[in-house]
Every structure is written in C-alpha cells, then in structure tokens.
Amino acid sequence: MTTTAEVGNAEIYSPLKVLKHPDFRVLAAGEKPSSDANIAAFYNPQHEIHLVEKPKPKPGPGQVLLHVRATGICGSDVHFWQHGRIGDSMVVTDECGSGHESAGEVVEVGEGVTQWKVGDRVAIEAGVPCSQPACDACRTGRYNACPDVVFFSTPPFHGTLTRWHLHPAQWLHRLPDNVTFEEGSLCEPLAVALAGIERSGLRLGDPVLICGAGPIGLISLLSARAAGAEPIVITDLFQSRLDFAKKLVPGVRTVLIKRGTTSKEQAQEIKAAGDGPLKLALECTGVESSVHTAVHSMQFGGKVFIIGVGKNEQVFPFMHLSANEIDVSFQYRYANQYPKAIRLVAGGLINIKPLVTHRFALEDAVDAFHVAADPAQGAIKVQIQD
Ligand SMILES: NC(=O)c1ccc[n+]([C@@H]2O[C@H](COP(=O)([O-])OP(=O)(O)OC[C@H]3O[C@@H](n4cnc5c(N)ncnc54)[C@H](O)[C@@H]3O)[C@@H](O)[C@H]2O)c1
Ligand SMILES: OC[C@H](O)C(O)[C@@H](O)CO
Ligand SMILES: [Zn+2]
Ligand SMILES: [Zn+2]
Q1: Coiled-coil intervals in this record (predicted)?
Q2: Nearest ligand to the C-alpha of residue 149?
C-alpha cells in the first residue's frame, strides 16, 4: 500500500497549496452554487470572508475523498479572517480556505487504500505530519512538532470547511455508529483539551482552576470532570459563559472576573470558591492578566498549564512562581488524541453535544462566520453542516 510517507506531503498537498485564482472562483453575492459544487469559505489578507468554488479533487494513491458533513468554526478561523495572522509564523498572505474541526463520509478511495470504503464515517485529523523516519518529531510520536505538518486552514494550507476534501487514509479516525458527525467534528477541540489533561498530569480528586469558558475552556471543563477533578472552579469575563458552564457541569464553581480588579484580588475569590489554593490551572484564554490570576491561585508545588495563546511577549510573576515551586507548561495543538476523544464520546464519559449552539448550511457559511465573530449572538460553537 502507498502511504503518505512514500508519497510525501509536498506531492499530496502542493496542488492545494498553490491553488490560486485560475483554479477557483469567488462566488458573486447571492449566487446559488449547484448542490454538487465544491464550495468552501475562504478568508484573505483584505479581511474578507467569502464563498469560493474549487474543482472537485480526485483521490491519489493513499488518499480518500470525503464529503465533509460537519465543521465547527474555531476562534483561530475567525482570527485569521479578522486579523490576518496568529503570531509571526502563521500569516494570511493570500486567499486561504478555513476550517479544521471536521467529520465526514468516505465517497471515493485512491489506489492502495484498503482500510476505508465508501460510506465509512470518520473524524478528520486536522494536522497531517510528514511521517518520514528522518523526522524526530514524527518518529518519536510528538508529531504536533513536525516542521512539515500540513495543518488545514492554517496558511498556506486550505481548510476542511469545504464540500469535497482529500485526506491521507491513515489520518482519519472511524466514528462508531453512536457518534454523530457533529460530535466527530468536535473531536478536534476535544483533542486540544485532552492533550492538556494528559500533559498537565491531572489526577483524580485534584482541585482544578479553568480560566476562560469559551469552547476550549468548556471542553476542558468536561474533560477535567471526566478525569475526576474536584472541586473545579471556572472563570470568565461574561456571566452568560459561566451560566453555560454551570448548565454543562452543574457541580462547577464559577468566578466572574471583573475588569478593574487585580490578579491577586481575583485569585482571592478563586481560592474562596475552591475551598483553598488549587493544584492545577488549565489556562484557556492566553490573556496575560488571566495567567497571573492562575499563578496566584495555585498551591505550593502547583502547575499552571497554558492552552490559550496570546501576545508574543508576556511578563510572568517570576518570584511568586519561584518561591512557590509553581510549574508553567504549554500546549501546542495535540498528538495521539483523536482515538481517545472518540472513545470518550462513544462511551458516554464526555457529552460534547450541548456545545453546538448554532447550525448553518454550507451555502450560508459566511453568515455562520459573522455569528461566530459577534459576541452579542452568544454562540459557543457554530457548525456548518452539509
Ligand atoms: N494550544 C493550542 O493548541 C490551542 C488550540 C486551540 C485553541 N487555543 C487557544 O485557546 C484559547 C481559548 O480558545 P476558545 O476557542 O475557547 O476562545 P474564546 O475566545 O472563544 O474563549 C476565551 C474565553 O476566555 C474569556 N476570557 C478572556 N479574558 C479573560 C480573563 N482575563 N479571565 C477569564 N476569562 C477570560 C473570554 O470571555 C472567553 O469566553 C484561545 O487563546 C485559543 O487561541 C489553543
Ligand atoms: O485547534 C487547533 C488550533 O486552532 C490551531 O493550532 C490554530 O490555532 C493555528 O493553526
Ligand atoms: Zn482550532
Ligand atoms: Zn514529521
């Protein structure tokens, strides 16, 4: 069988990578594409978001053609559209397809693909590493560090928010019958949270703080609860998000972060809510003041585990960390988490269904982006379904 390693990422993806105007067409406002058209939502350096029609691809050796059935909009999709970059290395320099939280159905298999057949239902792993034996990251299983990873929807690679998507056969994960496409697509942000749970070393009965009740904080909350954390305190700037957290996990304790209060004052409230200093913080905002709050909420020997991404340069309360032996760690995407995510959802240990608050048809993907980007709409996870 031909594998991605034999074919090579560049060969597989260069047609997508260089897909430029002669190959795709921006749909006119109000234009109705055919029901078979390979439409996708693209952003560009002019901060536009629009529908684009692309050719329907044909699977090559080792590849599978998928009908993408559900895709969630991630904060990073909105960020790339509105701000044109994340950090210094991920920059929108051209038209780029959005979406990386997807699940779909196999519609055609390429030469040598034996593990999939038409009709199989799969979660799509969003980052495809090079899988070359000479790559230390891939060889040692920490493939989120692969320098040649193709991460869909991160420029220059187009996303999975499209109707027909080509994917290497071995980077798909089978969905059992009791896991919906919607849940399959949520396995991507769940993979982020589970990587955090695994690497942070959370243990049964640990008192945990979660900073931020956005999708990543909420999914971390569900995961921390499933892992046996108790008590769990969650923070946010918005009462509506804390109310959502409370509905999701009734036992969670909530602290509203008020602007104008110091991190030490916020930490006092958190420690009161948690019956004392906590052992672990899963920081899901990336905001400097929130990191400080987390640090001041920890016990001696605690850990602040940062999943959120934020400003390039941030100041840390160095001496407090030092004098209290508080560890600080970070998470960059994930490796080896999808199978676990699917098992936890299928087994009923994590119920991610309530996260989806808004659903749109693929043709209305632009409207979906506007809802995801507008805090007044109160969306948690906006999904596009086809
Ligand atoms: N490490 C990774 O691989 C990875 C993967 C996905 C997302 N992320 C990052 O995780 C973070 C969370 O993602 P999300 O989709 O939930 O984002 P989001 O913006 O929807 O949610 C963040 C939440 O934090 C709250 N918040 C902001 N400032 C706060 C503060 N000072 N104290 C408490 N709460 C505060 C916001 O009100 C919001 O509800 C983002 O920074 C995102 O970029 C990281
Ligand atoms: O869920 C994965 C994240 O959104 C990605 O790392 C993105 O932020 C940048 O590629
Ligand atoms: Zn994401
Ligand atoms: Zn690699």
Answers
A1: none
A2: 4
- CB 158, CB 96: distance < 8 Å: yes
In ligand 1, which atom is closest to the CA atom of 195?
3
The three-point CA angle 188-97-29 to 5° equals 125
- Ligand 2 proximity of 154 Cβ (cutoff 6 Å): yes
Q: DSSP letter string over 334-358?
A: -SS-HHHHHHHHHTTS---GGGEEE
Share of residues in the chain with pLDDT > 90 (%): 87
Structure tokens that stand for 307 in this block: 């999943």
Give yes or no for residue 92 CB within 6 A of ligand 2: no
Strand (E) or helix (H) holding 243: helix 239-248
**φ/ψ (deg, to 5) at 60:** -90, -175
pLDDT tens-digit profile of 209-227?
A: 999 999 999 999 999 999 9
Residue 18 burial (CB count, 10 A): 10
Global confidence as pTM: 0.96
